[in-house]
Amino acid sequence: MTSQMFPSEPVVHGTTATASLTGFATTEQIRILIVDDHTTFAELLTGSLNREPDLCSVGAANSVASGIAACLALAPDVVVMDYHLPDGSGLVAATAILARAPHTRIVILTGDPALEALEQAAAIGVCAFLPKDGSLATVLETLRHARIGGFIVHPSLVSLLSARRRQHSAEIPFPDLTKRELAVLRLMGEGSDVRANAKTLGISENTCRGYVKSILGKLGAHSQLEAVVIATRLGLVPAQHV
Fold first, then answer.
1. Tens digits of per-residue pLDDT, 163-177?
2. CA distances (Å), 150 to each of 19, 141, 187, 241, in order?
3. Where in the chain are the domains?
4. Fold match between 11-155 and 165-241?
5. Alpha carbons 107 and 126: distance in angstroms, whole number
6. pLDDT band at 238 (very low <50, low <70, confident <90, very high)
7. CA distance 30 to 58
8. What is the pTM of this model?
9. CATH assignment of 11-155?
10. Distance between CA atoms of 165 and 172, rounded to whole angstroms?
11. Which terminal CB of the chain, N or C, has fewer other CB atoms within 10 Å?
12. What architecture is domain 165-241?
C-alpha cells in the first residue's frame, strides 16, 4: 500500500489526556498507540478503534524513533507496531519500549510474516504477531487480549511452525513437564489468559501463575508466546492450537 508519510512528530488524538475522540474516559478504555508509516492504514485503524466503546487511539507515529518517543510520552496500554518502518524494524522499537516501559503490551503487524521474526518477537516479550492483511475483527480482539495478558499467533504461521518443528526439536532438550503443566501449556497455546485457564482447570489464579512460571523455566522461554513456539516445535502443543 502506497501512501504519504506521517509528520515526523507523533500525532496525539483527543483534546485532553483523559478524554478520547469517542467521548469515553480513557481510564475506562484500552489506550492504544499506532506506529505505522502507512497513513491510510493508520487512519482507518484509528477510526475503527474510536468506534469501539472499550478501545481508543491515543496517538500515531511513523518510525522507530517517533514510536519510542510517543510511547514514553503517552504511556499507552498497547502499541500496534508495524514490523517494517522507515528507519528500522518494529522489533527494535519494541525492544527499546519494553526496556523502559516493561508493562506496555506490543502487537506486531507485518505484511510478510516469517518464523524468524516471530521467534525474535517472542524472545523480546511481544504479546502478539499478526499478518497485516488479516481481518479487523482479529486485530481488535487481539488488542483486548493483549491488555489482559493474553497473546495471539495468527493461524497463517502454523505451517511455518510445523515445517520447522522437526528441524529444531533435536536442538532443544525435551522438558520434563508434569501433566498439570502440560494442561496449562496447551491452554496457553489456545491464547487463554491466566484467569480463564485457572477456571478451566479448577485451580486458583496464583497456582496457575506458578505453573506458567515453571513452564517458562523448563522450556527456557522468556515469555508465554516464546514458550508456545518452543512447545509447538517439540510437539507438546498441537499446531492447530497456535
1. 554 455 444 456 788
2. 26, 10, 11, 14
3. 11-155, 165-241
4. no
5. 6
6. low
7. 10
8. 0.63
9. 3.40.50.2300
10. 11
11. N
12. Orthogonal Bundle (1.10)
